[in-house]
Amino acid sequence: MSNTPSSFGALGVPAPLVTALTAAGITEPFPIQVDTLPDTLNGRDVLGRGKTGSGKTLAFSIPMVARLAGALSGGKRRPGRPVGLILAPTRELATQIDAVIAPLAKAYGMTTTTIFGGVSQGRQVTALKAGVDIVVACPGRLEDLMKQGFVSLDAVEITVLDEADHMADLGFLPVVTRILDKTPSTGQRLLFSATLDNGVDKLVRKFLHNEVLHSVDEANSPVAAMTHHVFETESVESKRVLVEKLASGSGRRILFMRTKHHAKKLAKQLTDAGIPSVDLHGNLSQVARDRNLAAFSAGDVKVLVATDVAARGVHVDDIELVIHVDPPAEHKAYLHRSGRTARAGSAGDVVTIMLPAQRKDVKDLLRKAAITVSPEVVTADSASVNALTGDVAAYVKPAPRTTNQLPASGQRRTGNDGTRSAGSQGANAQRKRARRDGEGVGAGAGSGRGGQGGGGARRGGAGAGGGRGGSVGGGSRSFYSTSSDGASGGGQGRGGSGGSAGGSGSGEGGGRRGGAGSGSGAAAGSGRPRQSAAAFSAGSGAGRRRSR
């Protein structure tokens, strides 16, 4: 359109919000904002088909704040009766929406709060009792608080459903329907969804009135700004090396896994290889999820290893590479994962890694996603891999997990600090050496559980306790696993059982109680490690297993 407004002011956005947007470095509207703001600012119901990364959060945040701050709401805020409601499918998305809308609301002296599960409801109840203007909520916890009488939606004047298709995928539509039934039918409603299947169309028909449909033009779609690659690698071991190489670049990148276990495991493997990484999946507490996402968003770590649960909840700009380490089962998941890059008008690359046995599945996946790309057989040293990796980030020595621990029998002492000196080696060379140094020596009894440690660590002897591993004779391995050790079968398992009765026993795995169990009378226990503790079997056996 030749007469497309080039500023928020020209679209009718009030001056205080233009000032707040400018302060955040946002001066030019995106297409979906240009399309929807004239209607939403005038109170029309809107169905937005904006894809992720298209600027839709501001597309609904601006009119909500502008209209609620104007003559529409009026009056003084009342406890437990918000006037604006935004529903989001995940905790991460709710938090990030609040981060966008809160500064806008502050420009008018309005308040916001988030409501979601996984944390104590105390802070949320306190905020509601104090009175908030705008609530950004996940459906489950919001309904719980409604049933407890802490919040009423009878004063809500504007309701937003963000990523309604994802709510449908998660089974939230019945709850969403009950929530919307509690809002006044005369209020303004804005619904944003990439698709209208799985019951989303029923929500539109029931709750939107005389709505205006707006879709981001396909030419401006983030999918069109992505470059897609399919890399085939010959074995699980070569896949592991390839993943490590692609993760070693200096820019932000997200690696997707199918299972929570493998996401946690890969993040640990990369960190141990000198590539600081954090994981994001459903098994983490809310505090841990917030901490890991904050570290990734702030650039403290450049690699995030996530499951599909995070595909919709991570809205971080400047992600240059998305890697499908495990190709997803459905094409919708592929698009949602891939949408983490090419955001806010930037370009990005998407890599799918497959083994020969996965050719048909990946071909069908890309066909359904309408992605045309030719697979390429690669190694970690291929030119196309080097081009996507870019500048290799500096090697970061992993933080030690134990202190003042004598090396177990069969382990080499590598220096005063227990690590091999990096010297003048390059980052990749240091990572390779770190992998070699990370190999423990198997115990004589290492067949099933990695042994008890050659010196009988349980009674304070001088061995290191064993962690539960796979079968030394070649245990089962996930089809999508990036483990490089077919003989050990992987797994974190039980920490060492050293130091429980005194003496100098040490349990390398680190149980829940007593840490590493080093020293006299330390209660090391043999519980499972909380995070990704290394598990060694000490003794004189000939078997070897990786600590990663």
UniProtKB/TrEMBL annotation:
The keyword Nucleus does not apply. A motif (Q motif) lies at residues 6-34. Residues 6-34 form the DEAD-box RNA helicase Q domain. GO terms for molecular function: ATP binding; hydrolase activity; nucleic acid binding; RNA helicase activity. Residues 398-548 are annotated as: Disordered. Residues 440-476, 487-524 have a biased composition (Gly residues). SUPFAM superfamilies: P-loop containing nucleoside triphosphate hydrolases (SSF52540). Residues 525-539 have a biased composition (Low complexity). Residues 37-214 form the Helicase ATP-binding domain. Residues 401-428 have a biased composition (Polar residues). Keywords: ATP-binding, Helicase, Hydrolase, Nucleotide-binding. It holds the Pfam family DEAD. One of its GO terms (cellular component) is cytosol. Belongs to the DEAD box helicase family. This is DEAD/DEAH box helicase.
